[in-house]
């Protein structure tokens, strides 16, 4: 059987920035290895739908999920206590496709930064560009440095790191990488994808969509992609969350 | 061990729990959790004559104790279903129900004809999808239109024919009677209730289709009431659905008048829900000295 519900022990669940929480769960990584960019579908008691959260890191039998308090479901998640059992479906989805010998530029915006930690660990000396609205929202800088990344921090208002957008930094360092792996808000992904297309860089983007089953059965989390010249619907949970940027037909 | 088997329109189910159309795809994904033979049957994702890409996202919104969806019948079309999905489904040792939806009565008839030549066990007429512009629920909201489409499809359908009813009507019992009078073999009910959520910041509906079909625990009491009303109005067997999440819900729905059950939205939080419900049902029957689950159907004692 390919899928199973995993009962994890909650080890810690701490706030690390404004509305951002860091949840650590016991996880049998030997039996269920995770590739970077995959996600866990977290059961929240009393809610109809699970919450899809990208894997921030997995090591030594600990799965780390860094999530943003956005609504009722994540609020309930933030109240979960150490020792509690947490029911997850994981690992789900298709993550980033990595090739040996390439230098990657990892671009994370806001709550799109967490999956870049595990991705940074799987790539050699990557350039990691992290963007946040302001200093209150900055996360995971120490972890990313420890992962061996060349790290750049940018904020929209300049309250931490350099002032500017992730695409400004990408352009400055455009000769220093071969391919881009990005996760963040849709406007950022669109801008990153456009820049990569203009500069002739390959780019993979991790997308988000309102999701129900998490395994490709209900067809809820649709995303329009262009394949062989034809526009078709794929699904973030099963075909993604990572897609080739050039195939994605971004909304709006 | 009580006898959980039930019969609907001559078709034998090993237990009354059927995966509800639209929540279970064509079974392959949930087949990675457990052998699909643990289910009484599978009602497949609604299929149309030609491929449909469905609605633009977002298609999903959570609601208190439930959710809205407006997938819009995304499916590969009936021919692809027959060629690529049905052969695999037929090996799963469970009852296979094809759920069909069309833009016109002719399309429903054509699909019924095609599927009658295959190994599907039953055909479920989806005249209650609230999320498509043409077809779907427009055939399911008046006695005349339900009677008409049932009679027409009946002429082309050689398989047991289930009519899936919409709850978005004034008098569901009279609609069920219309289906019965025009050749239906069974009723399944209820499809989703049309609902809506709005993002108060953007003032946009959360769902791109603006409205969506509501399902989950929140609709369960409505489903129970409607199943009870229809059970009082027709002799046809009823496949009850709408927010069934626990074995207690299953027992309640059977008592209200259902012969079999469809399980949908609860799968999204617990993929194993149908397995757990079957176990709970069995324990309940044993505890109460009831030999067969069929003995529960319609045993309500109304005030």
SSE ordering of chain A: EEEEEEHEEHEHEEHEHEEEE
E-strand count of chain B = 14
What level of helicity do the residues of chain B show?
A: 25-40%
**Terminus-to-terminus distance of chain B:** 32 Å
Description of the molecule:
The complex is a heterodimer of chains A (252) and B (303). Chain A is built from five helices and 16 strands. By secondary structure, chain A is of the alpha/beta class. Chain A has two domains: 88 residues, Translation factors (Elongation Factor Tu (Ef-tu), domain 3), CATH 2.40.30; 144 residues, Nucleotide-binding domain of ferredoxin-NADP reductase (FNR) module (Rossmann fold, 3-Layer(aba) Sandwich), CATH 3.40.50.80. In chain A, strand 3 and strand 4 form a beta hairpin. Chain A starts with a strand and ends in an 8-residue tail after the last strand. The model of chain A has no long low-confidence stretch (mean pLDDT 95). The longest helix of chain B is centred in the last third of the chain and has 15 residues. In chain B, the strands form three sheets. An eight-stranded parallel β-barrel of chain B has the order 3-4-7-8-9-10-13-14, surrounded by six helices. A four-stranded antiparallel beta sheet of chain B has the order 5-6-12-11, with no helix packed on it. Chain B has eight helices and 14 strands. Chain B has one domain: Alpha-Beta Barrel (TIM Barrel). By secondary structure, chain B is α/β, with parallel strands linked by helices. The chains are: A alpha/beta (252), B alpha/beta (303).
